[in-house]
Structures are given as C-alpha cells and as structure tokens.
Amino acid sequence: MTLTIEVTATTTQAPGYKKHCVMLVPVATYTFTSKADVAYAQIRQQILDGSLEAGSPLAQYELAASMGISITPLREAIRRLSGEGLVLLEGHRNARVAMMDFAEARQLFETRQALEPAAVALAALRRTDADITRMNAALENLLPVTRQWGEVALAAHREVHEALYTASHNTVMVRMLNDLWDKSDRYRRAGLELPPGGEPRTRDFKEHHRMVAMVADRDPEAAQGLMCSHIANSLTAAALEANEPRPDVPARP
Question: By three-state DSSP, how is residue 114 classified?
Fold first, then answer.
C-alpha cells in the first residue's frame, strides 16, 4: 500500500529577502505494509503539525471514513500513538490528543542540545559535495521563523537543519534527530505565538548561513559552538521559558 502526501508550493513576498520566495516542498511517497501504518502516519502528522489540536477528542469513525479504512486498523494506529504519548485512551473506546507536556519538551530540548551540535561537528568533518549542494538549496528557500511566515518558514527551517545533521553520515544520530524534531514541532509552533515569534529574528536567519559556511569550510569547532547558541535562542527555548514554573529566588542573607 502506498500513501502519497503532497504539499502545494506556496509563494510569499518578504521585504529584505527575495522579491518572490517560492517554497517548494517535494512530494513524499511512503510505502506501508498495512492500513494501520497509513492511519498511524496520517494521524501522527496531524497531531505534530497542530491540525489535530492538543486535548481534542479523536472522532474515530470520521477519521476512518476520511482515510477510506475500517475502524479496526484506525484503532490499532491509535494504540500505537498512545504508546508514544501522543494520544490518551479514555475508557474502552474514546481517545483524545494528549495535551502538550512541557516536562517532555524540556527533555526533548536537552537531548537536542546534546545531539545536534555533535552531529554538525561530524558534518564538518564528513560532508560531501552533494551534502553542500543540498544545504545551499535549502538556504535558497529559507525564511525567518516568525509568526508572519508560519508553516512555510517552519518547513524551510527544518530542511536546513536536516541537511546539516544528515551530513554527519551517522544514521543513528540522524534517526534520533528526526524523531526529536518531529516530537518538538508542537512546542516550536507554541513558540511562534509568543513575543519572540513576532520579532524579525534576523540573527537566527543569518546563523543558518553561517553554519553552512562553517561546515563547508570543515570547521567542526565553530559549527558546533554556533549550533549550541542557536538552539539556546530557539523558539522551543522561548516556549519553555514561558511555560515552565520559575523557581523562587532565594532571599539574601
């Protein structure tokens, strides 16, 4: 069974960037072995991109009908998503999208802080000409990650990062980082709604170009250091700062 997911190209105008910036997301084709796999992939993506909102009930029969499958494989998919913590099972039949958990977000963030700078350092040592070509192509579509540019900017931003860490040629790291980025999407979108999401974020935009140049120049220390500070100033960091309880400041003696 083959599921094809198409994302239509979007045209935007950005003062100070390209006169016409066209974000082209390649059509992705995924091959699954069962209808449950198809349902799992579709529902998971809708949860991560916010189409299915946190806390919302899952209308299972409607979802099954929209996918052209029976209720049995859909429920199998929901059980898998429950195992990942993305869906909460209520009683025998009911289910809803899990609320965002900022304790989980903190763990995802800390893991990314440990892995992605190391992956970019490896990329600077191992990158090929094809890797650099992919990075430069991703930069062509890059927009500032702000509320103004929304989903188009988020997709372009992710492609730059994925091009960078994939150049590490460490398949375990790449797989783990892909999963971290997937699971962090909901928190990244929450960051867009905060004050930093309304700012121009030109420093963040320029840092991507600098990191690609450092990897191209085979400078692992510089690339790793910049990635560390880049993550520390990310939208996910802003979302964590806004949503985590702040410890009481101890009184001076």
Answer: helix
